[in-house]
Write a structure and sequence with these properties.
The chain is mainly β. It contains no helices and eleven strands. The strands form two sheets. Strands 2, 4, 5, 6, 9, 10 and 11 form a seven-stranded mixed β-sheet that branches. It is globular and about 40 Å long. The N and C termini lie far apart (about 40 Å).
Length: about 120
């Protein structure tokens, strides 16, 4: 069982930066692939970024590639999402997620989820 708690959301202006963090419980944090997803009002949840258990592989949605960076600190059981050059269309609830490695795409088959943190970007 893994419990995930996100933090760091807030209200910012376009062009600003924000850093989201996700604290994970459990001693086997390094075993899990970690991901960030988001859901905007009236839209389906979408993949944002993912990182492998070792941190050696990262994946990004095209919409955030080059602007954002996912990282993890194994000793602290945390995964972070550094979001730069924020745009109004980035406004959404952001969710942290975890899965054991599977033979699937980086955006698939996550089954542990946090409660979400709101990010609002004003123009």
């Amino acid at each position: 069982q893994v419990q995930l708690v996100e933090s760091g959301g807030g209200l910012v202006q376009a062009g600003d930066s924000l850093r989201l963090s996700c604290a994970a419980s459990g001693r086997t944090f390094i075993s899990y692939d970690m991901g960030w997803f988001r859901q905007a009002p009236g839209k389906e949840r979408e993949f944002v970024a993912a990182i492998s258990g070792s941190g050696g592989r990262t994946y990004y949605a095209d919409s955030v590639k080059g602007r954002w960076t996912i990282s993890r600190a194994t000793a602290k059981n945390t995964v972070s999402l550094q979001m730069n050059s924020l745009k109004p269309e980035d406004t959404a609830v952001y969710y942290c997620a975890a899965r054991l490695p599977v033979a699937a795409g980086p955006e698939s088959l996550f089954y542990y989820w946090g409660q979400g943190t709101q990010v609002t970007v004003s123009s």
